[in-house]
Structures
1.
Amino acid sequence: MSKLVSVLTSNWEKSDSFTISGYQRDGGYKALEKALKMKPDEVIQLVKDSGLRGRGGAGFPTGNKWGFIPQGDNKEHYLVVNADESEPGTCKDTPLLMANPHVLIEGIIIASYAIRANHAFIYIRGEIVHVVRRVQQAIEDAYKTKLLGKNILGSGFDLELTLHAGAGAYICGEETALLDSLEGFRGQPRLRPPFPAIAGLYAKPTVVNNVESIASVPAIIDNGVAWFTSMGTEKSKGFTLYSLSGHVKNPGQIEAPLGITLRELLEIAGGIRAGHKLKFWTPGGSSTPIFTDQHLDIPLDYEGVAAAGSMLGTKALQIFDETTCIVRAVLRWTEFYKHESCGKCTPCREGTWWLVQALADLEAGRGSEADLDKLLDLCDNIAGRSFCALADGAAAPIISSLKYFRAEYLQHLQNGGCPFDPVAATLFQGSLT
Amino acid sequence: MSDQLTTTTDVTLKIDGFEVTVPKGTLVIRAAEKLGIQIPRFCDHPLLAPAGACRQCLVDISINGRAFPKPQASCTIPVENGMEVKTQLTSTVADKAQKGIMELLLINHPLDCPVCDKGGECPLQNQAMSNGNGQSRYEGVKRTFEKPVAISSQVLLDRERCVLCARCTRFSEQIAGDPFITLNERGALQQVGIYEKEPFDSYYSGNTVQICPVGALTGATYRFRARPFDLVSNPSACEHCASGCAMRTDVRRGKTLRRLAGDDPTVNEEWNCDKGRWAFKYESARNRITTPYIRDESGVLREASWPEALSEAAKLLLNAKSAAVLMGGRATLEDAYGYSKFARIALQTNDIDFRARLNSNEEREFLANARPNATYKDIDDADHVVLISFEPEDESPIVFLRILKAVTKRKLAVTVISPIKSRGTEKLKANFISASAGFELKAIEKVDGLTNRSVILIGERALETEGLLSSVEQLATSKGAKLGWIPRRAGEVAALTAGAIGNLLPGLRPVQDAKARVDVQTVWGINQLPTKTGKSTDEILKDSDVILLGGVDANDISSSAKSQLSNKKIIAMDIRFGTSTEVAHVILPVASVVEKNGTFLDWQGKPRSFESAVESLNRSDVRILSMLADEMKRPINLPTVKAAANEIAQFDKWEKSTSNWHVSGTNTENLNLGPTEAILNSWRLLLDRGSLQEGEDNLAGTARKTIIGLNRTKAEKLNLVEGELVKISADSVSISAPLKIVETEENIVWVPRNSTGAQLVSKFSKPSGIKVSVSKA
């Protein structure tokens, strides 16, 4: 069977896929009509039954999250869509929003209806201004066609949708930091409990969902639970977007059922760039422990990846071939985490500061083998000790790279510097004289 | 059996194998404290909301056998039944986690302990020793910052020392309600900062220095002045207001170097105000009186020996036609008792008044007959707090914090009757009723929702409106509400209790009550006491010819007090030269608060005892009064503070009081205001020209500026714009200050009572309730 699926990406090839008319022509907003005829609790139950799990990284069942919102509490409820896609390697929501913003809007209306929210927010990464503009236009169009605002499709359901552009902080992808930022404060994670479902945005019950999770909802409503659960694996149902980047022939988004392997994905993407072979890869963005060519046949679902010692994360598959220096790659990621650490807690704030210096020394060939153990011990003092998961993500590539490529670290020390030609890993290799 | 000892709201858990039972909601770190298990911490503070930021307090926790997958911050986790906690003492994981955090905290922390103010009393230093590794493995580059940054004139910040625990920012936001400092930037460059154009404008900023667990925040005055291990610390009580803060006075070689808030959960919790913390140099000021003086025939003061000065003073008093005692409001209970007994025995008169300030006969009746009964606890439990003629943030800052706490934690309803809406009123989210001095009686009628759980707090300024004290007392009595009378100064409640007023003997015993007099005669061992009700301050100033002044500043009384005093024979007992010594014939130096033992009574009447913090040859007032009485051959037998305290203890509180003392005010008095006129209103700001703040330049830097406040309509009618210099005048004197638009009634103009360029008491006939004209300066 062909491993490919075409749901979220079905209309991406069309030149007007992002317009409301293009979306409606291909059946857009039909699921909304269907959902609005259901009872909100039926919508929640349907999403629960589908087994849809959060596509933002943690994989928490979406329907359960919706079910946590207390009903009949006479409080406002909010839906917040996390579009603060900022992790190195992660690049699924950006193209999705560029190509088809209305599928998100449709999903938002359905989800808001289900959790009885009359105000929804999209928190979008501030740097991707083109996407901000496109989504803004889509929202305006949805308002014009009465898909947003008062009495949507005559159902009596009202929904306001607000787009908020972030100010460029990775930490605001953490849901409570996102809520702080959305409220106008500095984005720093909040102490939990209370969880957002009880006291989220403006201390009101709030669901925070990833773009892709919400965008998957209309198709589930449209096609039903059986259709959705026919795809994927036992505990990871449905389809998802895999983002292939790096040393791969045809990088980009591949929509496939959960549980596909990298070997299959690489075949679809035309393989590793010509003349090279796979060295290591991330299954779900830079914060997930790396894999190597031993892991080509791991099923890329939540359980499969976890069983192999990593996390499915955002399914951002960064592919690195043998020209890449592991120390250099890990240092670059670590610099990112140091730059993005919010500063709230000690292990992340101070730890990333130290890790960068430690890795820079190793890359330059300074130090001894004992420094590798020190580095691992340092990671042990950082991972699992911090306020939120950012620091876990910072430690993950270091720990995993030392697991698979300790020899290469040592080679730097023996060599008195990096043995790799950094240009060899670039796209422009060979063009420099 | 144990079930009977615990309530359903108690939780039992095990920590390091030891069982402990604590109330539900207790945090693990606090439950461990109860067992004597000290988990290291930085961001945790029992009076602040948990942050979980520093991660130093990580412990292993399991609940009914299910373990958390990773160590948890014990400062954020409430206890649960069946919980088992393993701290660093029993868990190698927790121990390593803590040591790891400590190492990380230290990588960017400078090793400047030898020159850091905190060195020697530093939680980071101490816990690095107790819960850290001996040596750092960090060989990299430390983060550095330009240092120090002045976040106000009093508080300096060395950012590289900061461990970013956010205690200071949380205190400012959660406790003081002044969120003027915040964390800026991110990652290791995160730092405490102020808003670009707004300084750290808080009366409570010093607390941030005290709770800083490292040397990042330092007080500008104390910085680089001492090492903690060279200081001798003494528990003390604050002399600045009637809030009653427990304090700690740190002294080196006989000199006070700093004062800190003491810990008294029933009064100030762990906080105090900046005035209490940073205004103490007056005691060592250059104008301190160190020897007795006598004014010679040519009118020049000359130094005198104690025997000579005492003999001269005794002669003046014995030869007086009408001798009297006037006291300031800062005497201790023992000293006030000395004055009280001295007047009755040595001067054989009831002409004594501790109210060397604005006063009224109604107030004296109120003090003698009303029985204020409110406490801090009543504020904690109140359903409604009403503030009348009382601006707690300025006039009793810890009372303010206590009300604010209830407002923040449980949305306590507060009503404020005041001429203008102050920042304090805004912070309390109070129902604000604007009323000019002289016109509050109408406003009181608007107060509703009073129950027996309500608390009415009335300030000393209430005396400035005739009938107000009477009406408020009647209101409180009729509703069963608690009543608190909160004077500004620390000594007033004690002076009242000591009978340093013309209508009362010690223990609130009425002069006119024969049985009350017998009580006093019995303790004093004398046969008779003067029976005529004594003169009040104003009458003394008018009629007495020889006056003993105890810590009196004429400028606190009225604009004419100093000239009135200059026509009399004055014996001044004081710590510093001032308005009283300028007119004195004999000057007798006395001990300052840090030099003596004594007791203040706070506004609740709760004793605040303290012992001398520095050694000094200066003697407490009561000792000198006793010597003077001996010289007069009319001994009062109070050779020591202790002797006075023992004697005071023999007086119980006189509970009987008359109920027909009330005065009815005139609610409809019409001042016939012209279009350019308004009614003057004022109160003293916390930081102002008060004489105990002299010499504290850093403190003065955060005083709120002198302004003239009008409402917008009035300003527009007078064609005045905010910020421009405006003048108010009356009695052919005037003051000017920039105009500020405030929330008030149109007929009100508000000016701080004793701020730079606006010292109203010594300038105008009255500092409130009079008609003044307002114009461009």
2.
Amino acid sequence: MSKKSNYYNILVKRRLETLKEYLYLLKQNKLTFAALIIILFLIIISIIAPIIAPFPLHIYGAVNPQDKLLSPSWTYLFGTDEMGRDLFSRVLYGTRISLLGSLIAVVMGLFIGVPLGLTAGFYGGFIDELVMRIVDMFLSFPPLLLAMAIAAFLGPSLQNAIIALIISWWPWYTRLIRGQVVSIKEREFVRAARAIGSPSWQIMYKHILPNCISPVIVQASMDLGGIILTLAALSFLGLGAQAPIPEWGLIVNTSRTYFLKAWWYGIFPGMAIFIAVLCFNLLGDGLREVLDPKTKKY
Amino acid sequence: MSNYFEIKDLKINFETSEGIKNVIDINELNLHKGETFGIVGESGSGKSVLAMSILRILSSPPALIKSGKIMFKGKNLLGLKEKEIQKIRGKEISMIFQDPRSTLNPVFTVGQQIINVIRHNKFLSRKEAEEEALRMIKLVKLPDAKNTLHKYPNELSGGQRQRIIIAIALSCGAELLIADEPTRNLDVTIQAGILKLINELKEELKITVLFIANNVNLVFIVSSRVAVLYKGKIIEIGTSQEIKEEPIHPYTRGLLGIVSPVEREIKNLAEATLKEGIKAENSICPYFYECKKRIEICKKISPNLTKVNNGHWVSCHRVIDREVDNESTSISH
């Protein structure tokens, strides 16, 4: 072989094979696969939303009073709102906000929660007690309620809503991973790694983490849906995204006044929330089946 | 030579909610450079605890090292800081574990694990580490080294895995190998293969081996000297040949099957305690309850290791009067 060593080529190949196997297993479950396709579709939409939106100006401030509250037509696929803005463009763009918001919240939650849980589980003793009692403190509130309280405290805005979600979500990951770590650190290969002189950080991140990450992946993929819902709920309650931002929850909120006159106003963003959350939950279920050997069906 | 590796007055307790239990109580144990030293004992006799205490990988809330020294090339391993002991682990003293099925990390290929250890300890480039890994796999006599590198542990058999584990353990140039029941859970032919490998590697790499097993015969095959561990105490120590041919302690004789298998009088323990009126648990011979040759003094004083001849020591009261020896003919069947 040339410069790149043969060894690493084969290694990459084996990794790809594993990935292929997972994909194959995901395909076996039709529902999960459909969910995966829809999620990919949503991601693409969220990336190109400003380009494909028929009325890009309507996404934010533009006012178009002569077309207000029109029912769905070929010009306005989802109808218009009380200011004459195209709902289709707004819902499209809302995909970006919801997906990005929940992605940020989950990733940040993982960044805070996973290392803490790992440390707590690995070192045990006082550190464990300290971290887990703090976690218990957070977990003693229902997550939506805690997020509401924090968002209200920080002041209503989209950023603050996301921060509130991060703060109320990380403890779940900490607890989840800590339980895994406690069981895995007693395994023989961890002891063997210590006997060969591996430092603690290497044992934690190279040996323990890869062995306990799959339930976290499943949880995170389900939380992506859950957080979309919670973010919409916060916006609906006026604690999240503010007026011109086309956030799904916010659109549903403003539609309440016109619900009897204009059914399309609330239905379409509501449907968007429903589909996104459903798909992420289905994907989470499917991932669990693939990643957890106990539920493997083949 | 004698102070290459030395254990002195080592006392390890397990402190649990049920009370303090003394699991290791060793006065003296010497390893010579280049020998294979065997430790035999039934399960629960403290063999693994002893092994793990050497590398200080005992989990510390239950286990507590009360006192003692483990000297290795003039350094007291028990007195070292965590950073210093980490430099010894793997590079000077290495260890292989009981169960090859669980000693490898299931999510990485064998190659990744060896290369990771080599790169971390020797600071080699990827390419060099890879070659080193191949060399190690060939050293432990696995055929088709190149393909083996890319296998996950679950794709290998128990014997193959144990060989990989030995390769990893020796990959950083350890000169003392602690083998904690390396052949447990393997079938007999593979056991033989692993033992042969350990013997060959010992010759080839000039390493010292501390071989721990609960099967006496295995230990006799590989080791030149043997210590018998019972309830955390060394009760007999000597060359393999001597212990094989002339075991003195009643327990060792029981292990070797010279006397009929020891009838465990576990239910009689409490009874015996009452009947004999034993007060302080510490001052009796650890083997007292099961010993068929116990005499009055056994429950009063715990025996110390007594020299029988050069290199053969036994801790039994009766050996002092040579009574055990005299009876040996009448008892063996």
